[in-house]
Amino acid sequence: MNIGEAAAASGISAKMLRYYERIGLIGPAQRTESGYRVYGDDDVHTLRFVRRARGLGFSIEETAGLLALWRDKTRASADVKAMALRHMRELEAKITELEAMHRTLKHLAGHCHGDKRPDCPILDDIAGLRLKADA
Amino acid sequence: MNIGEAAAASGISAKMLRYYERIGLIGPAQRTESGYRVYGDDDVHTLRFVRRARGLGFSIEETAGLLALWRDKTRASADVKAMALRHMRELEAKITELEAMHRTLKHLAGHCHGDKRPDCPILDDIAGLRLKADA
DNA sequence: CATAATTCCTCTAGTAACTACAGGTTCAAG
DNA sequence: CTTGAACCTGTAGTTACTAGAGGAATTATG
Lengths: 135, 135
Known about the structure:
The structure is a homodimer. With about 140 residues, chain A is mainly alpha-helical.
């Protein structure tokens, strides 16, 4: 199958397939005489793996590591689990950070009239004039 | 005060101050005869505003908008509130996405021995072999 | 079978928001 | 007066894509 079909089958766009190949995340595809890339079912399988790993938030580098582990039939599951746990910690940290932002914003927005008047606790707070902590 | 002092006073590094100036987020600083940037207390006030807005997750472009609103004493608080609410929705979407990743990973990691054995439900799942949904 | 439309190819450059040099001034202290 | 810290500019690298130019190959239609 050619790149367009592989893209449809894997859920990764043709442009991204070329990109992933260029940066070495996936190996160079077979080529027809005229230079068109050709993919097999096993390639699509790999591509789906990549897509899923990326969908779980693993970076390209981590995805490459996961791919290597996947191919290494003698790997220790501990290595995979360690990667997963590390990534989970990163996700937790990010979530905590975003939640803190959200909480602050919610508090501020709750005190802002949101009408034509110019006075606005949101701007006041960002500018350094802290809102009193109340209900 | 020079750039190093302004950096210390605002919490934005000297490099980032130059960067912010270059991209136009903050106006060009005054200069000494020899070309050193000079900042005043009001500049530091602005810088702190920027830092706080960025800390709440607003993009540079949004921060520029917030800055304009802050300076416009005739703004409507509704405009500020709208920005805050829109950003909150983005944060919520991101948090939801990260939580879904985390949930999946937690489920998978919970089923992985994490020892020397190679069999690993995490890789199996990423590869497309779905784990049965159980407790 | 000719032509038109589509798909493919490569390569460059742009995005966000920084960070890291390199190579050079200027300033403050000893 | 010389060292060393802090300043200056400008370029390039980072992550993970996305968009577009310009051109070749393939597929569909008349």
